[in-house]
Specification:
Elements lengths: L2 E4 L1 H5 L8 H12 L5 E7 L11 H6 L9 E6 L2 H7 L5 E9 L2 H8 L3 H18 L2 E7 L12 H13 L4 E5 L7 H14 L4 E5 L7 H10 L4 E4 L20 H10 L8 H15 L10 H4 L2
Helix pairs in contact: 2-11, 7-8, 8-9
């Protein structure tokens, strides 16, 4: 079964003008009605680093969770952020970006990989006490622009360390849109066999013309957890000056439908969410089916 995580947090975090709290809340409530498996809704990080999401606690207070089975995920950058997220039992998942690139780990969290792994261990202990679950994102999971070492074997070494800490969900994260099928398929193919008890996800960034080959490579290699953002907006402002957009959720839905995956989504609610998405990002929402030209026919 394919699990979709909708990531409005990733879409909003680098947006240049502040999105009002009421507008964020209305949008997230619309997304909760769609029926996604998980909603990556906000983050508990320094407002100096990500001012757009400084109102995450206020947004959370306005979410209507009673009629939704969607689980909430919040991103943190350190143990302090995880402790804040742990105060809210509504949050099921606490996500932490652990980079396989030493350079990016420093840029993103001002810590070394060794220090970040120490944080992962303490956050795992925290989640065990609160009944929440940690999701570790292996950022720069398909290569990096800094010349730091990368290989499927390195991803395996990181996963071995996470497995020893009993981390149950690991998402390989593109971060900058560097992934291609040749770097996507081998890690998933190897990791899903070596660690069958871990749920592996794909957080891919893409350009409009390369989305299908990326999703197909991950899916055929065994990945069944995918992150996306309506309209393909977003990117990591800590990685490069120019952002490469998220995997469009519309395209993930299209691919899943073609693959025979029953996502059980409320398509009417999705259309309503697209309208709100347009109001926030001032662009036309993507159609749910591509044109023949987009298919390459």
């Amino acid at each position: 079964m394919l699990h979709l995580t909708e990531c409005p947090r990733d879409a909003m975090q680098g947006w240049p003008t502040f999105i009002p709290t009421t507008q964020k809340t209305a949008y997230l409530n619309a997304l909760l009605r769609v029926g996604f498996d998980t909603l990556d809704f906000g983050s508990f990080v320094s407002p100096k680093a990500i001012p757009q999401l400084a109102d995450t606690a206020q947004v959370l207070a306005g979410l209507d969770l009673k009629q939704s089975a969607t689980r909430l995920l919040a991103i943190v950058a350190n143990l302090r952020g995880a402790e804040t997220a742990a105060r809210y039992p509504q949050i099921r998942y606490i996500g932490f970006p652990l980079s396989v690139s030493e350079t990016f780990q420093q840029r993103n969290t001002n810590k070394s990989i060794r220090e970040a792994l120490d944080d992962v261990a303490r956050m795992q202990e925290l989640c065990a006490r609160t009944g929440q679950q940690q999701v570790v994102y292996l950022s720069m999971g398909f290569g990096n622009p800094y010349g730091d070492p990368w290989s499927p074997e390195i991803l395996g070494e990181f996963t071995q360390k996470l497995d020893a800490l009993a981390v149950g969900i690991v998402a390989l994260s593109d971060t900058i849109g560097a992934s291609v099928p040749a770097t996507i398929a081998p890690p998933f193919r190897e990791l899903t066999v070596a660690f069958p008890h871990i749920e592996f996800g794909a957080h891919l960034h893409t350009t409009p013309g390369t989305w299908r080959e990326k999703v197909q490579a991950a899916y055929e290699a065994g990945c069944r957890r995918f992150d996306g953002a309506l309209g393909g907006y977003g990117g990591c402002p800590m990685a490069t000056d120019e952002l490469t957009g998220n995997m469009p959720t519309e395209r993930l839905i299209e691919f899943a439908t073609e693959a025979g995956e029953d996502l059980q989504l409320n398509m009417g609610a999705l259309a309503e969410a697209q309208v709100l998405n347009q109001g926030i990002f001032a662009a036309e929402p993507l159609p749910l089916a591509p044109s023949p030209k987009e298919r390459g026919n």
